[in-house]
Amino acid sequence: MRSRSNHLLAPDWFLNVRLKFRHLQLFVALDECRNLHRAAERLGMSQPAASKLLGDLEALLGVTLFERHSRGVTPNWYGESLIRHAHAMLTSLTQASDEINALREGNAGTVSIGTVMAPAVTLLATAVERVHREAPHLQVNIDVDVSRQLVPRLRAGAYDFAIARIPADMPASDFVFEEIGEEALCAVCRADHPLADTPINDPRALSPYPWVLQPTGSLMRQRVEHLFLHFDSPPPARIINTPDIYMALAMVDKSDAITVTTREVAELLCRQPRFAILALPEALSVQPYGLISLRERRMSPGAARLMSTLHRMVRESQASPAV
């Protein structure tokens, strides 16, 4: 990665270098294709025209954005930075058209949210219902996933905001974070499981049974692993990996498998007479999640309204005495 100049870019650098919409499209195409010829084909350009467009911009910026090699091109740090912002700008423009069209049709716009499981079940569902009383035509899109998937999508512009945790490898300074609380976890089995209704004082009683857990590295998985380590107990002999709670519950329903989910999900989906919640030797929870928005991005009116409702609900919950 080489720099042709050590001068710093001005805040309005995109005006000085005459940044075009075509540049943004080319960055995204090169990111996805990693080949100049294929990227040019996708944009309906000739390869020489695409090469000149990229080269002219690199010359104006004073830095190389992509390393050229026999198999194609690879973005360097400068290129990765521009690619990320190009994705965000193009996504934002697409969302702008959706919002304008919704307003033309008499709707209240669109808001897209990414969330981890627990607040999707309780907090977010209630907030959407409250907002729809005043703005019944607001279109709300909700994705449920783990934080390490949601926050990069937020940063790329796919969401207006997220309810999640900021991954350790992402700069916290890019975000505004308001803590909501921890996710309480519980272990679930089928109602006629051999361990159902049996107080479990030692995790060794759990080890012989198959477990259905989120993939290695997830917070829930780490918390279960820590439970066995804490009691110096052997880990489960057999583990089935899936991030899908419905797949996990299907496995639990048909076998002696045990799974772990949030307390809110268990109370909603895992009721008697089909399922039972195991009495574990210690309470399980994972680190706090919160409302996350991008510090430098202004929200749409619909997103701001929903975020304001969530802020109010969080403050109300924190002010209420614990029961």
A few lines on this structure:
The chain has 12 helices and 11 strands.
According to CATH, the homologous superfamily of the largest domain is Periplasmic binding protein-like II
Categorize the overall geometry: globular
Distance between the termini: 58 Å
Residues in helix, %: 40-55%
Q: Mind describing the biggest β-sheet?
A: 9 strands, mixed
Could you state the order of secondary-structure elements as H and E? HHHHEEHEHHEHEEEHEHEHEEH
Description:
With about 325 residues, the protein is of the alpha/beta class. It has helices at about 15, 20-35, 35-40, 45-60, 75-105, 115-120, 125-135, 145-155, 220-230, 245-255, 265-270, 300-320, and strands at about 65-70, 70-75, 110-115, 140-145, 160-165, 175-190, 210-215, 240, 260, 275, 285-295. Strands 3, 4, 5, 6, 7, 8, 9, 10 and 11 form a 9-stranded mixed β-sheet that branches. β1 (about 65-70) and β2 (about 70-75) form a beta hairpin. The chain is globular and about 70 Å long. Mean pLDDT is about 85; it is low at about 1-5.
